[in-house]
Design a protein that fits this description.
0% strand, membrane, Put_HupE_UreJ, transmembrane, HupE/UreJ family protein
Length: 193
């Protein structure tokens, strides 16, 4: 496990890389309807996402599931579109809506994990388990940083500009929806070319 810090740092760097901003957008979209008082719910959601992508990341790194890069690259922004749309259409936060978000987050984590697999496969040598764990722990820490920044931004907007939570959610989720829809349409063309 002497390489733990290296792969941990790679996980953080990978999730926070602005060139791969689709993962940042997904985590921000998850935060859209939540505030600081909901940090436990967000921690559970982010961890579900990590569990999902850790599972498929491990399976694809060990070549146990096939990965179609163009299909996964198309599906990743689709997960962001759906998450944003659920936020926009959500009228209230009840137990069933939170459960739906949890299940979607877990499912979407499976898809995002396959997106990481080619990147990680190219870095791994013969030792896989330790580096895979370190990479996933780094991803989780990076995602929590995105949650922290998004919740802080939400707090500032809600309190500084006196926006309602619904207005903020609509603004943030609609912006993310637009960006992700554009990405989906661009990648759809690549899928069939």
């Amino acid at each position: 496990m002497q390489d733990f810090p290296l792969y941990f740092q790679l996980g953080i760097t990978h999730i926070l890389d602005w060139q791969g901003y689709d993962h940042i957008l997904f985590v921000m979209a998850l935060c859209g309807v939540y505030g600081w008082q909901d940090w436990r719910k967000l921690l559970i959601l982010v961890t579900a996402f990590t569990v999902g992508h850790s599972l498929t990341l491990a399976l694809s790194v060990f070549n146990l599931i096939p990965v179609s890069v163009s299909l996964i690259e198309f599906l990743i922004p689709v997960t962001i579109v759906i998450t944003s749309l659920v936020n926009i259409l959500r009228k209230n936060q009840n137990k069933s809506s939170w459960l739906l978000t949890y299940l979607l987050t877990l499912l979407f984590g499976l898809i995002h994990g396959m997106g990481f697999s080619n990147y990680l496969k190219s870095l791994l040598g013969s030792q896989v388990a330790g580096p895979l764990l370190a990479f996933n722990v780094g991803l989780e820490v990076g995602q929590l940083a995105i949650v922290f920044i998004t919740l802080t931004l939400s707090f500032l907007v809600l309190n500084g500009f006196r926006a309602s939570r619904r207005e903020w959610n609509l603004f943030l989720s609609s912006a993310i929806f637009g960006i992700a829809l554009t990405m989906s349409l661009e990648r759809l063309g690549a899928l069939f070319s």
